[in-house]
């Protein structure tokens, strides 16, 4: 960060009017104070920073609007830990990235276009390992996201973005990684409306019935669903994106299709969405399915279920 200050802590005083805050990558706070300290007639707003420069659009994509608004309120002037707790990230089995990540090609392009590189927020999503634009692996920088001095701002540079050894993924694994990177970018770069938990439960239910994994009476063929899901993605990839499924019954996939009222990391919603062949935008904007009161629809889905049972057996 460029400023005329000798000490980095003075940057916080200039930007936020206090020393009592820390730099946070995913869900920063004290944004109201930041706007207040902007130059007169500045066009920047809290909403602009929230939706264009944080991971909020991705992390909060699958939570109800009321809870999302509470997180935005916390980002305005609250304690940062509250936002992470609201999203279940504090108690989650998912471990967030330790280091800032970068794409070597984006790094070069940034210098050519802007004169210097910067951290791309899409590269910092836990579970995303490739650049959706250049379709190449991401690399860890030497800068920690958490830990060390949390009262300073560190930009990307030649000193901290070094490719010591080139990374290469098998083509089948690369394909899955690109799916996730592309779908995550859709969430990040489009202000898709918030939905209640039941919306996603019903959307998934329609596709589960179409594919023969569920019946109209809400019975779900959990064992076959899990087997096919693992076969589709492979054990190693699910482990890599911290979404492994237990050998015994239960697990996040079972909870998502059956209850869907628990806070689950957004990556897992995208995994299920891709498996069920639902375009991400359609998942949010198009009500899928059938009319439960229409007997012809019910009969059609019953026939489909019976046929799929034969195929799955």
SSE arrangement:
Elements (H helix, E strand, L loop, with lengths): L8 H8 L14 H6 L9 H8 L2 H4 L5 H13 L2 H7 L12 E4 L1 H11 L24 E6 L26 H19 L7 H14 L11 H12 L1 H6 L11 H7 L7 H10 L4 H6 L9 H18 L1
Antiparallel strand pairs: 1-2
Helix pairs in contact: 5-6, 8-13
Structural features:
mainly alpha, 48% helix, 313 residues, 2 strands, 15 helices, TniQ, two-stranded antiparallel ribbon, TnsD_C, single chain
Please describe the biggest sheet, giving its number of strands, its sense, and whether it closes into a barrel.
2 strands, antiparallel
The average pLDDT is 88
Task: Give the amount of beta strand, in percent.
Answer: under 5%
Assembly state (oligomeric): single chain
Portion in helices: 40-55%
Q: Could you say how many structural domains there are in total?
A: 3
Low-confidence stretches: none
Number of helical runs?
A: 15
Radius of gyration (Å): 22 Å
Order of helices and strands: HHHHHHEHEHHHHHHHH
Structural class: mainly alpha
Distance between the termini: 61 Å
Approximate shape: globular
Output the strand order for the largest sheet.
1-2
The counted number of beta strands is: 2
Descriptive report:
By secondary structure, this protein is mainly alpha-helical. The protein has three domains: 1-87, no CATH class; 95-192, no CATH class; 195-312, no CATH class. The chain contains 15 helices and two strands. It has helices at residues 9-16, 31-36, 46-53, 56-59, 65-77, 80-86, 104-114, 171-189, 197-210, 222-233, 235-240, 252-258, 266-275, 280-285, 295-312; strands at 99-102, 139-144. It has a two-stranded antiparallel sheet. α5 (65-77) packs antiparallel against α6 (80-86) and α8 (171-189) packs across α13. The mean pLDDT is 88.
């Amino acid at each position: 960060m460029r400023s005329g200050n000798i000490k980095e802590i003075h940057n916080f005083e200039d930007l936020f009017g206090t020393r009592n805050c820390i730099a946070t990558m995913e869900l920063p706070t004290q944004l109201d104070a930041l706007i207040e300290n902007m130059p007169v007639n500045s066009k920047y707003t809290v909403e602009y920073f929230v939706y264009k420069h944080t991971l909020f659009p991705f992390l909060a994509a699958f939570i109800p609007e009321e809870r999302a608004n509470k997180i935005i309120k916390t980002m305005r002037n609250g304690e940062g830990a509250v936002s992470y707790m609201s999203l279940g990230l504090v108690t989650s089995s998912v471990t967030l990235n330790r280091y800032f990540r970068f794409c070597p090609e984006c790094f070069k392009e940034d210098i050519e276009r802007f004169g210097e590189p910067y951290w791309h927020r899409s590269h910092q999503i836990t579970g995303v390992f490739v650049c959706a634009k250049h379709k190449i692996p991401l690399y860890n920088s030497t800068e920690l996201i958490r830990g060390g001095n949390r009262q300073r701002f560190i930009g990307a540079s030649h000193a901290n973005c070094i490719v010591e050894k080139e990374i290469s993924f098998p083509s089948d694994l690369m394909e899955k990684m690109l799916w996730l990177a592309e779908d995550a970018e859709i969430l990040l770069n489009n202000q898709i409306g918030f939905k209640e938990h039941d919306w996603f439960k019903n959307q998934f239910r329609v596709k589960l019935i179409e594919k023969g994994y569920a019946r109209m009476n809400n019975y779900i063929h959990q064992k076959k669903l899990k087997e096919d899901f693992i076969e589709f993605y492979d054990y190693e990839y699910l482990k890599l994106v911290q979404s492994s499924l237990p050998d015994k019954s239960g697990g996040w996939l079972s909870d998502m299709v059956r209850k869907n009222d628990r806070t689950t990391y957004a990556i897992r919603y995208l995994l299920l969405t891709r498996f069920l062949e639902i375009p991400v935008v359609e998942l949010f904007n198009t009500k899928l399915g059938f009319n439960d009161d229409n007997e012809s629809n019910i009969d059609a889905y019953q026939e489909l279920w019976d046929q799929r049972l034969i195929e799955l057996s």
